[in-house]
Design brief:
Number of strands: 10
Helix content: 25-40%
Radius of gyration: 18 Å
Order of helices and strands: HHHHEHEHEEHEHHHEEHEEE
Strand content: 15-25%
CATH superfamily of the largest domain: Vaccinia Virus protein VP39
Number of helices: 11
Shape: globular
Distance between the termini: 23 Å
Largest sheet: 10 strands, mixed
CATH class of the largest domain: Alpha Beta
Low-confidence stretches: none
Structural class: alpha/beta
CATH topology of the largest domain: Rossmann fold
CATH architecture of the largest domain: 3-Layer(aba) Sandwich
Number of domains: 2
Amino acid sequence: MDDNNRAIWTDARTIDVYSKRIFLYEPEKIILSKFKNDLKSWNMLDIGVGAGRTTHFFADKVQNYTGIDYSQAMVKACQERFPNRNFTACDVRDMKIFKNDCFDFVLFSFNGIDSIISSDDRLRALKEIKRVCKNKGGLVFFSSHNLGYIEELFKFKLYRIINASMTSNNPLINIARYFGLRIMNWNKNPKGNVNYTIIRDGSEYFRHQTYYINPEKQIEELYNLGFKMVRAYSLNGKEINIKSGFEEIKDPWIHYLCQR
């Protein structure tokens, strides 16, 4: 992960917020259901486990569960919440603590890979994920921010302000967020380049630098690295027809499932 982002994930307030999250996104539910009969025999690696949001749902479904995070503070939070589970501090870019071909299922949830803002380091991370994933059948499931959402993100949306007023929420928050996006990214082209961009999108009060990638580029990278059977899912859990392209897909992030 980028060192500029590292401090965020060791912040006690951030850990407290993430410790209260107990839910799955729709694509994660799909995976849990799709492979429910296989999970019980799987050795699973949960990367960027944070404070254990996914642990709550996956750990007791698999044969062996290991959670890792590059934040020692997050790992400690997990150990306190799930004392009978295996957690360790580890950077996804260098997982030498694990042997080759040792995990049936590798999960990297909630756009954890987007905290890595170096393209070269992202490739290093994906190569390491491939290395530790079992050959011929091991599965990798992760999510990453969608470059196609950038233009939508930067739009001034009056309806959000009106809706906030009608629901007794503070419309100034939405106004502040819009101008915050513009100010924090004043020297950025909102559309980035054709492959990726790095912006402060408001995550963690604009402290976090986030990598947004063109989904077609992400899929190309996965195939170039030797992954197979790449599939993509929108936030509502529906599979995306990747042959039709992603121009109409405006989800903030996309989930990818691929095979070693």
